[in-house]
Design brief:
Strand order of the largest sheet of chain A: 1-3-2
Radius of gyration of chain A: 19 Å
Oligomer: homodimer
Chain lengths: ~240, ~240
Amino acid sequence: MPSSLANASTVQTLNASALAQLRSDILTCRLMPNERLRVEALRERYGMGTSPIREALMRLEAEGLVELEQNKGFRVSEVSAANLLDLMRTRVEIETIALRWSIEKGGVEWEANLLGAFHRLSRQTKIDPSNPDAISEDWSREHADFHTALVAACGSPTMMAIRARLFEQADRYVALSIMSSGPLRDDVTEHKQLMRVALNRETEKAVELNRLHITRTLDKVAASLAAGHAATESQGRKRSR
Amino acid sequence: MPSSLANASTVQTLNASALAQLRSDILTCRLMPNERLRVEALRERYGMGTSPIREALMRLEAEGLVELEQNKGFRVSEVSAANLLDLMRTRVEIETIALRWSIEKGGVEWEANLLGAFHRLSRQTKIDPSNPDAISEDWSREHADFHTALVAACGSPTMMAIRARLFEQADRYVALSIMSSGPLRDDVTEHKQLMRVALNRETEKAVELNRLHITRTLDKVAASLAAGHAATESQGRKRSR
DNA sequence: GGTCAACATATTTTCGAAAATCCGTTGATT
DNA sequence: AATCAACGGATTTTCGAAAATATGTTGACC
């Protein structure tokens, strides 16, 4: 019987825990693209049996973060310039639609939540001082929340789910890019502008700013992916070759 | 060692088999919306242990065909008029984008495959004579293949995957509708027209026809959902109540 | 009669071992 | 030396039982 609110996370099944940890480890590239995911190693890493781990992996496979080859096991999904480009273009389209709908339908609640999300984001430092090679996980969450809040009024759970998944995928590339070439630009003002025009119902302008926001970030990522893709090479083989 | 081509399906893991069967049973509503999915029952139904079944269910959960409540097990995802409407609108947007790109980029290969897919579809009878209450699974597959072929040249695997998933979801509603109010209209000519204008690169016309194709089908489904939603009521409880 | 704790049953979740499969290596044969 | 079947270790996949959790029922108490 769970007594305190604090250990609310304790009551979740191992399965859910495995899922959360695996997703986080993959998105932050603590588990690198293309890295093999041996069940035995993961069992040890997360301290649980095979079932919850395999179940979580199957779920992540459907999300595209993990790939399964029959009888050969799982590995973290590969990254590539082609996939990144595809992701970018698709994201732009999806975000554009969602943003249009959201601006059209958003009411006071939407405005309030968006302002709140921006405020939280602006008070977060992007880089964790204790670990300057990675982006702060707090910032990352606030950033995701801001962009979610922007389109939250679109009125379509389906569209929101698709958008969230694409955002997640893109975030993995961002994490990868930061590892190889340091933090990206600071974009507080970009977010502020975006929020402003959205709240002003300047739909076309908002859509355009959002498009630029996505392409600017991901262009940088694409550049560092092309340059330093050594980082992802020789992954997944047992030894060097 | 698999010897013949015929039992190529034998070599797949039980996991993959469970996934395929569960997906099929859910999409055709042999497993009804909101129906509880007890592992013991599924073990018996598919003749395998718990692991492959739970793994398949987790994967389907990510696809939205199944829902999981912690420590209370799985059930087939609920259907609703609101969800159907959401699905319709989202599908129209996604299909529109994919179709635009496909018409823009499609070459001879695309044209040939599309013509082939249409031909196969037109030679399939929609209703299985042995089971007139359900749509023929062969037809259903050819129909899906046709619509896939239409957008196949869009050049975006991400978009294609999203589209396929939405199409699948919609198909479940179609199956449900057929159970309660008989087969829908025969739409061979509709498909033919759609193909024609696509091959002629009349983009706007194609997009509009595609939009109409989707909304016409799903409006009918929505109507029969509103009328005969008794079919899905009292599902999932052990006994009537 | 109503409330609720304690028990009993049904079901989900998790584990660890067994079976199946893959992959690299050895060694026999040509 | 080259080919390839057979072996062996590593790994994935699957099973069935055990543990954990939910749910329904009984009966004590007010």
